[in-house]
């Protein structure tokens, strides 16, 4: 009653043993593919972590730099500006990680929150009553009167260009892991598991426990079993090319590091622009939002303090170098894995599974 290991010679197998063999080959194939995938997956996961750590390091550096701008040049609003600054960099981090948000919404939300502070602490430092309604009116007015000139739009443009490739790379790496995980659990067809049993276990039914499959026979069986997986070859090659393009984009003219480290300067220029246009802004705001309560002897906005560059170059250079090195290492490794899915059958037949350097092997029917 044997279904797979039918042979003219006497046999020591039963139908139940054939079923056990089928379960064994399914398990072994999954483990073999997992072992092949392990190094590739380990490298991708390692680089996802490394990239994220480098991104976070750059973001922290840029956030600290922006915070120190307020502490050194705009002390009257430094404490209250801490929250909008923190929100801005949280939004940027979430954007890179693939959240449903945009750079434009993050930057404009930041300037919406900043304008009430600039208006009440720098342009009109005598304002004592900054009610919720008045603050909200200032936020909404910001969108119409554009107190920060072209600086807010420039910041959106620069960050969008540099962050886009980082976001795409982050999503592409996650997709790569998903693809690899899916191939590990690709179901074996009934025909395939029978072919694997015939190749690996049918010799046992005749007491030939040490004989191993012929190399060509193994390749034929494996290629048939893994046809659906090896079909990924052209898409995997395209995927590697896309990763290469994205890493090159990250290192191109609109570098992430330069854009992030320049946020403080864009913010400073925007605030200076608003202060220099203080009288016109006040006139417009008074018409739209009304006049708030003020202390006598208003200090006006005479004390504009242009800020000099904050020097924390060592941290920045380290994060910059780290990210560049990781990019190069990663793309060089991934290029070597270009043929991963095309050569998966060859790799599974390599090693101990088939007979090497011997004149005797199993061809599926007999010892040859």
Shape estimate: rod-shaped
- Cα(first) to Cα(last) distance is 26 Å
Main beta-sheet annotation: none
Oligomeric form of this entry?
Answer: single chain
Number of strands: 0
Helical residues, percent: 55-70%
Q: What is the N-to-C succession of helices and strands?
A: HHHHHHHHHHHHHH
| Radius of gyration over all CA atoms, rounded | 32 Å
Mean pLDDT across the residues is 85
Strand-pairing-aware structural class: mainly alpha
- Strand share of the residues? under 5%
- Poorly predicted runs: 296-311
Domain count, please report it. 1
How many helices? The count is 14
Entry keywords:
368 residues; mainly alpha; 14 helices; 0% strand; rod-shaped
Task: Describe it.
There is one protein chain. Helix content is 70%, strand content 0%. With 368 residues, it is an all-alpha fold. The radius of gyration is 32 Å and the shape is rod-shaped. Mean pLDDT is 85; it is low at 296-311. The protein has one domain. The protein contains 14 helices and no strands. It has helices at 15-73, 75-96, 103-123, 132-145, 151-184, 190-200, 215-225, 227-230, 233-250, 256-261, 263-276, 278-289, 313-336, 344-349. Helix 1 crosses helix 6 and helix 3 (103-123) runs antiparallel to helix 5 (151-184). 33% of the residues are buried. InterPro entries: Glypican, Glypican_CS. This is GPC5 protein. Belongs to the glypican family. Pfam families: Glypican. Keywords: Cell membrane, Glycoprotein, GPI-anchor, Heparan sulfate, Lipoprotein, Membrane, Proteoglycan, Signal.
